Each structure stands twice: as C-alpha cells, then as structure tokens.
Task: structure prediction
Amino acid sequence: MFDRNRYSRKAALSIRISEFEVPPMQDILIVGRKAPIGPEAVRRMAEALSPEQFTLLKIDHPRIEAVLIRNTLMQMLDKDKLINIILEEAENMISDTMVLRSELKVAISVEREVDLL
Result:
C-alpha cells in the first residue's frame, strides 16, 4: 500500500538569466540540413537585426547546411581554422533538424621582449 507520509516530490531548478541581446543568435548559428529555418531565412533575420554584422557560409557536411558567423570573429581568426573548430565541436551534438546557437569569445595573449637600450 502507498504511504503518503513517506512520499515526497521534489524538483531541482537551474535558471540562467542573462541580458537579452539583439540579434538573439549571439556569435554563431549552425543550421542543420533539415532545420525548420533555412540558411536564407537565417541570413535575412541577421541582416534585419544587425546589418552587415554576420556572414552566412554554406557548408559541405552531412548534417550541417550553413554557419552564420559574426564578422569580427573572422577578422580575428583564420576563417578556415575557425570553421573547422566550429564543425568539429558541433557535429558531436547536432542533428540535421537542429539550429544551434553558440557564443564564441576570443582572448588573444601576446608576450614580447624588448631591448632596454
């Protein structure tokens, strides 16, 4: 028989709240081949919200059709290296029907020696 005195229901909640950003896609959108929103719609949305801030790159990949990426990231890093890293990480979690939103922060470290004379 069920004993209500020994029964409990619990829920663990984890809420992450951050400032709303425009556009809502952050730095990168990875578009699956069968995603509900296609690459051209993603490009138009980005252009409407943040004109000339993003570039849409078509991708030759079994599950990923395109990557929308913030232009400043491609100015800081080699485009091919950057795309390879994005694809390598995304392909482990994306299905062809998904659109992944990603934040990418770049920190560059420089160390120099100078002659004191």
